[in-house]
Amino acid sequence: MGLGDASLVALRVFREVAERGTLTGAAAALGYTQSAVSRQIAALERAAGAVLLERRHDGVRLTPAGRLVLRRAAAAVDQVDAGARELAGLPDEDESTVRLGWFATAGAWLLPRALTALARTHPSITVVTREGSTPALVRAVRAGTLDVALISSAPPFRAPDDEIPALEVDTLVERTLRVAVPAVHPLARNDFIDVEDLRGQRWISGPGDQWVMGVWPGLDERPDVAHTARDWLAKLHLVAAGFGITTVPTSLIAVAPAGVRVLPVRGGPAERRRVLLARLPGPVPEPVARLAAALRTVFVETE
User: What residue spans of 167-210 are helical by DSSP H?
Assistant: First the structure.
């Protein structure tokens, strides 16, 4: 047997598993049961004559054979989808279309400005976007459903994943992490916050294990999380209403609502964050290069 014996359904399922990182996530996205997803993966492994996924406690990881099959699966699914669009009389996603993924805070200021600038200078380029967490975006780039992804990185600034081949990663900017406080809060009286004064504060943070997205890193106490929210602007509006404080990247100063002060923190290790553009290795298509240039321009303008 070989990949020629694999069904299109199995290839779609495998691509979805690779992008979601778990069988349950792929099942939910496709509307299948987990057992149906497992059956499709087993059928594909029989056709390939190799184990394609390594099952782990936190999901799945592609084996070397799985990475090879993923590239073939992505190409096959894209070709079939392009044919289906052509038969339906729908416009095809041509070489001037860029599929961009972006992390949450980029949508509040960076993405709209960059897309506006790109539309003004290169109106023939179409950018299709979607939001996601950095791990999800990296998997989507690997799966071929995104051409490029805006991702964030914190010290020690490791590679976004340890898969082979390594992704091409371009640092667009590196800036410091700050803290947003209500304008009437005692911490807002100065032009900076001493790191020791962050102890005992009430925090507005990300849900679940995402406390790092909202709580100052390295606190030597269990944080008092008063509210959790995924949306950064929701966090800032909760800050404005006086319900707690939260960490923010410097870039969000421009969109902070009235009643919020965003201040640097003095003392302790400097907390820096990078915004990166990640893609698969290889020649850079011109539309991707133009989009990257527009993103860099926005950062330059906001320095």
Answer: none
